[in-house]
Amino acid sequence: MKKEIEIVAYRCKKCGKIHYPFHDRCLACKSREFEKIKPEGMAKLLTYTRIYNLPWGFDQRYLTIGVVEFENGVRAMGQIHVDESAHLETGMVMKPEWGPVRKQYGEAVYGLVLKPAG
Ligand SMILES: [Zn+2]
Predict the structure, then answer these.
(1) Percent of the chain's residues with pLDDT above 90
(2) How many angstroms separate the alpha carbon of residue 69 from the centre of ligand 1?
(3) How many C-beta atoms lie closer than 10 Å to residue 70's C-beta?
(4) Which residue, 65, 80, 84, 104, has most beta carbons within 10 Å?
């Protein structure tokens, strides 16, 4: 079964700016009223980086981390699951999933997983 993406972002009721993670006050207009929204649609890659020398708890050799923007404006960070040789570039469309990103005490920890949509 496909898991729902467990990300909740906060849209300012006054000016519409989207915050994720939560901020006490809107960064744009200082309002304190937000509505909760979920990321929707595909995710556009804004930036990415590959990390070697991973801390304990990761069993892979490296991680590719990306920041994406969903179609409704929510931005989030996730793990990009691709081969080392795969070509990545900013602006490309990624398919978001909620999947295992690492292991903690032998149990899978879930997070945002991104795969090239093409
Ligand atoms: Zn605002």
Answers:
(1) 69
(2) 19
(3) 23
(4) 80
DSSP result, 75-105: EEEEEE---TT----TT-EEEEEEEEEEEET
DSSP state letter for 4: P
pLDDT digits (tens, 9 = 90+) for 96-105: 999 999 888 8
Token pair for 84: 């080392």
pLDDT digits (tens, 9 = 90+) for 23-78: 999 999 999 999 999 999 999 999 999 988 887 767 778 889 999 999 999 999 99
Q: How far is the CA of 48 from the centre of ligand 1 (A)?
A: 28
Q: If you measure from the C-alpha of residue 36 to the centroid of ligand 1, how many angstroms do you get, rounded to a whole number?
A: 14
Domains of the chain: 40-116 (2.40.50)
